[in-house]
C-alpha cells in the first residue's frame, strides 16, 4: 500500500518586491468553494491566503472580518487591490475580461509585502 504524502501548501510570492504574500494558501476552484470563500471565518492567520480561480470580483456579504484583496490577471500581474475591505461591503473587483484570479488575505498583508498594482506574482504550485 502506497503512503500518500501531504499536499504542499500553495505559496504566493511578489516577484517584483521579493516578498512572500502567503506561505500557506488554499485554492478555491469550484463554484461552491469560490462562493463560500471566507464566510464564517472569525480570523485569518498570518501567512494565509485564499485564491479564488477563476474570479475577477468578490462580495463581502455574510463576512465577519475585513480582508485585504488582490485582483490578478492571467500574466500574474496585480491589476487591482483593496486594503481592509470591510464586512458586508457590496461587490469589489475588476473588469471580467481583465481579471483571472483573486487572492483574499489577512488585513495588513498588502502593506507588509509592499505589493502595488503592476507587481508580478508567482504562485507555487502554478495555478
Share of helix among residues?
A: under 10%
Any idea what the radius of gyration is? Answer: 14 Å
Question: Which fold does the CATH topology refer to?
Answer: Jelly Rolls
Mean pLDDT: 93
Q: Report strand order across the widest sheet.
A: 6-5-8-3-2-1-9
Number of helices: 2
Question: Main β-sheet, in a few words?
Answer: 7 strands, mixed
Distance between the first and last residues' Cα: 30 Å
The CATH homologous superfamily name equals Protein of unknown function DUF192
Number of separate structural domains: 1
Number of DSSP strand runs:
9
| CATH architecture assignment name | Sandwich
Query: At the first level of CATH, what is the class?
Result: Mainly Beta
Approximate strand percentage: 35-45%
The run of helices and strands is: EEHEEEEEEHE
Q: Which class do the helix and strand fractions yield?
A: mainly beta
Amino acid at each position: 500500500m502506497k503512503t500518500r504524502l501531504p499536499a504542499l501548501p500553495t505559496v504566493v510570492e511578489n516577484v517584483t518586491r521579493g516578498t512572500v504574500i502567503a506561505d500557506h494558501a488554499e485554492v478555491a476552484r469550484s463554484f461552491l468553494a469560490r462562493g463560500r470563500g471566507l464566510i464564517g471565518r472569525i480570523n485569518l492567520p498570518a501567512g494565509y491566503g485564499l485564491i479564488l480561480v477563476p474570479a475577477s470580483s468578490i462580495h463581502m456579504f455574510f463576512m465577519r472580518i475585513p480582508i485585504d484583496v488582490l485582483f490578478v490577471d492571467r500574466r500574474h500581474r496585480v491589476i487591482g487591490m483593496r486594503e481592509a475591505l470591510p464586512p458586508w461591503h457590496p461587490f469589489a473587483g475588476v473588469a471580467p475580461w481583465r481579471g483571472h484570479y483573486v487572492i483574499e488575505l489577512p488585513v495588513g498583508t498588502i502593506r507588509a509585502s509592499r505589493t502595488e498594482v503592476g507587481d508580478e506574482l508567482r504562485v507555487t504550485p502554478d495555478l
